[in-house]
Design brief:
single chain, 303 residues, alpha/beta, Rossmann fold, GMP Synthetase, Chain A, domain 3, seven-stranded mixed sheet, three-stranded mixed sheet, 22% strand, globular, binds guanosine-5'-triphosphate, binds magnesium ion
Length: 303
């Protein structure tokens, strides 16, 4: 039997480039919340994949941006930590977007770090072949990249060539994680992320950035107050959606409560898939002005 090897890879880049979509594609199942809103990911999320003798530990990270709140400072600290931990870096860029100051700043930082870095030009489904070649030419001198690999994380385009390269370069001895280990996220934290994802997908502008989800109740069969009509294998979840101001609460509720109803139904559907059992979800919207700058609130939210 061949020796077991592993690699720890941080998935980094600017907001909205498709890092979490890539994590899910690599894992072959949904773990991280994804949305069209920048700054969707707020913490570092570990996903482990075992392929033959090789174990890959992927670290999804928040998109790199200038922090305006304590929350965003913590998000950037998660990026720092993942950069420290990883032996290989997967820098995901939106190939359909132009190369700007954010990319130049990150390249400067990575140049100092001197860690093997792969440039993943994502969203190739949106580009012609000619434009893709132009993009490769634009990026190739930004850093001495170990490889430049065009991918389409959403549709799973070019994932096999990516795996081949990663399998070649995962050279650390041993497996740091147990074979059964898939993620460091708990069911509760995944549930709150999936609920927040639904809010992000259905609201616009400044609302999403001021939203957080707190699981208030998680009741299993046999526990007091568990609704017996949910059956012997269900789970009852009550969650609070925190918003930054009252105007946002009104937007989330919708004119006659239809927005929150829609969010609740789609989140409940997704949680059933995640937890593989009947789920009843209740949501409450609460105004908590300035929560993004209160350390104790951020602690409670595990941010
Ligand atoms: N067309 C296309 N869209 C993609 C692709 N990959 C990701 N997206 C979309 O890009 C948006 C952002 O994706 P995310 O995976 O949430 O991006 P992220 O880099 O994790 O963003 P942050 O967590 O905010 O930093 C979503 O609307 C995705 O559906 C792709 O290959 N093609
Ligand atoms: Mg993300």
């Amino acid at each position: 039997m061949a020796e077991r090897r592993h690699a720890t890879l941080a998935i980094i880049g600017l907001p909205n480039s498709g890092k979490s979509t890539l994590l899910n594609a690599l894992l072959g199942q949904k773990l991280a919340a994804t949305s069209q809103i920048p700054q969707t990911t707020r913490t570092r999320v570990l996903g482990v994949v075992d392929r033959g003798d090789i174990q890959f530990a992927f670290l999804d990270t928040p998109g790199i941006h200038l922090p305006k709140h304590a929350l965003n400072e913590r998000m950037m600290a998660h990026v720092d930590q993942a950069l420290e931990e990883a032996d290989l870096l997967l820098w995901v860029v939106d190939a359909d977007d132009h190369l700007g100051t954010g990319e130049h700043a990150l390249a400067k930082r990575l140049r100092k770090l001197e860690r093997p870095t792969y440039l993943l030009l994502n969203k190739i489904d949106l580009l012609s072949k000619g434009r893709l070649l132009e993009k490769i030419a634009t990026y190739k001198d930004l850093l001495p990249f170990k490889e430049i690999i065009p991918i389409g994380a959403k549709m799973g385009l070019n994932m096999e060539p990516l795996w081949t390269i990663l399998e070649r370069d995962a050279i650390r001895p041993g497996w740091p994680y147990h074979e059964e280990m898939f993620t460091d996220q708990t069911e509760r934290s995944l549930a709150s992320e999936f609920i927040r994802e639904k809010v992000l997908r259905k609201t616009r502008e400044e609302v999403p950035h001021g939203v957080a989800v707190l699981i208030e109740q998680w009741l299993e069969p046999g526990q007091e107050d568990y609704p017996v009509d949910l059956g012997p294998e269900g789970v009852f979840i009550a969650a609070q959606i925190l918003v930054d101001r009252d105007g946002h609460r009104k937007i989330l509720l919708g004119t006659s409560g239809e927005m929150i109803k829609d969010i609740r139904q789609s989140a409940q559907r997704e949680l059933r898939k995640l937890l593989q059992r009947p789920v009843r979800l209740e949501l409450f919207v609460k105004v908590d002005e300035g929560w993004r700058d209160r350390p104790e609130r951020l602690d409670r939210l595990s941010l």
